[in-house]
Each structure stands twice: as structure tokens, then as C-alpha cells.
Amino acid sequence: MKKLALLFAGLSLMVATTSCNDDEETVQEFSIVGTWKPVAEVRTEVDLDGVGVSDQINYTTCQQQSTWVFADNSSGKRTDKDEAGNPLVCSTINQRNFSYSYNKSDKNFEIKYQGTVVTQKGKIVDLTAETMNLKIEDNVDPTVYKATTYTFKRVAQ
Hints:
Structural class: mainly beta
Distance between the termini: 69 Å
Radius of gyration: 24 Å
Strand content: over 45%
Shape: globular
Oligomer: single chain
Helix content: 10-25%
Mean pLDDT: 87
Number of helices: 1
Largest sheet: 8 strands, antiparallel, barrel
């Protein structure tokens, strides 16, 4: 009986040590290159006392026709749409060219619109094949933390 218990313990130990998987899980990386449509944004403000507020803005059907295009060469174009005129019609209200940089390892993101001096800095908070969350921080006022996080859906090509 003692031999059977030792045999069982030995087999259990062997199974436990050989069934462990030491392979590291590979993390799939997705590219920001492509055309994205904004679907929502969250604006956050926190003052020095730690008092904060966040507002979620869900975009209208018209606003979701806007696009942010990120090209391979670190250039891009942002086209904003909204209802304008009388009667209201979904129209392009703004178009801006930009350059951008994105560091995949630390997720830092920087965008500079053509004709402006100041760059906007932030992070890619989440990036999958179909969605992207881009947080842009506003550091103009050092007494208030401000950030806008845009939620995008990839536009199929």
C-alpha cells in the first residue's frame, strides 16, 4: 500500500511539472494606420484638490461620419462632420492635415496639426483590430488636469 501511495504521489508530481506551460503568451499588436471614425469621447477634468468630473459625449450619426486617417508615413487628415445650415444637413465643418508619432512600446502619441505650433500629446489607451481609444491631455493650466479620450471604430476599406 505504501508503494502504491508513493507511486501515485510520484506520478502526480510528474504530471504537475510536465503539464506547466512556460511559453510566454504572444501579444498581438495592431496598427493605427487606416481610417477611423469617432463614436464617442470622454472629457475629464480634475483640480488640485482631487475633485473631478467626467462627461461622456456620444456622437450623432452625422458626427460618426467624421474620419481620422492615419497614413504609413506619419501624416494624416482629420475631417469633422456635423449638422449645419437651414434645414440642417450633415456637412463637413472642418478639415485639418496633421503629422503624428506613435511609440508602440510605451503607447505615447503626439499629433501636430498643420499651421499650429503646439503639439497635442497623449496615449493610445486601447488598440484592437476594430477599436482604438486615444487620450489627449491638455497641459495648458497646471492647476487642472484635463484630458479628452476619443473612442474610434476602424472603417473597413
